[in-house]
Amino acid sequence: MSSALNAGDNEELTARKSALRADLRARRDLAQAQADEDVVSRVSDVILFEILADLPLAQKATIGGYFPIHSEMSPLPLLERLHGIGHQTGLPWVIDVDVPLVFGAWAPGEASAAGPFGTRVPKAGAAQFIPDVVLVPLLGVDTEGYRLGYGGGFYDRTLEKLRQAGDVVAIGLGYECQLLEEVPRGAHDQQLDWMVTEQGVTCF
Predict the structure, then answer these.
(1) Which end of the chain is more exposed for a tag (fewer CB within 10 A), N or C?
(2) What pTM did the predictor assign?
(3) Coil, strand, or helix at residue 40?
(4) Any residues with CB less than 8 A from the CB of 11 and at least 6 apart, and which?
């Protein structure tokens, strides 16, 4: 009886998240289309000068980014700036379903390889690293820092593993329209530490 109830709960959670994803993707598409030309630069400034500058990071910290797809807020200008001042930057590899992401060294302007879902990944043989900071793509995020992604669970598994091993800072990038009162969540969903939009920054 318990397993049947749990299965039903999981099905309901999946259905709620799926319905919300379609709405949030449309919101994000519109926000990107209407955004000022300098919105990515402003968000990069906030992360660089209002968040990272106050963290006890090493002079050469490790920063896990992502290659933007669809209408995701791009972290590439920020990664370029971080790499330029001596930090190690990189992108994630998808190893397999239900497996945490692995980060490989990469900086904007360097060669990359085609990855799943239309994204780009480091070339084979790139040095792997454990990130001190993870820049996280998303469809939505709520007032407690719980995000809604595309449903693969990759970032939840990754952040859970990184947090079990030590300190990591998770920063979401997006538009104000992606902020919600509440995101449907499961037991293994992971919170962000920060969320930055074109209108401001939130610490959770």
Answers:
(1) N
(2) 0.92
(3) helix
(4) none
Query: What SS3 class is residue 201?
Result: strand
Beta bridge partners of 136: 172
CA torsion sign for 2, 21, 187, 152 is positive
Alpha-carbon torsion (74, 45, 193, 168), positive or negative:
positive
Tokens 């519109």 label which residue? 30
Q: Which residues, at least 6 apart from 168, have a Cβ–Cβ distance to it below 8 Å? A: 131, 132, 133, 134, 159, 162
**5-40: per-residue pLDDT in tens?**
455 678 888 888 988 999 999 999 999 999 999 999
Residue 44: Cβ-neighbour burial (10 angstroms; 0-12, 13-18, 19+): buried
Work out whether the CA dihedral 39, 40, 45, 51 comes out positive or negative: positive
Q: What is the pLDDT of residues 77-126, one digit of tens each?
A: 999 999 999 999 999 999 999 999 999 999 999 999 999 999 999 999 99
Count Cβ neighbours within 10 Å for each residue of 189-198 and write b for 16 or more, e otherwise: bbbbbbbbbb
State whether CATH 3.40.50.10420 applies to domain 2-203. yes
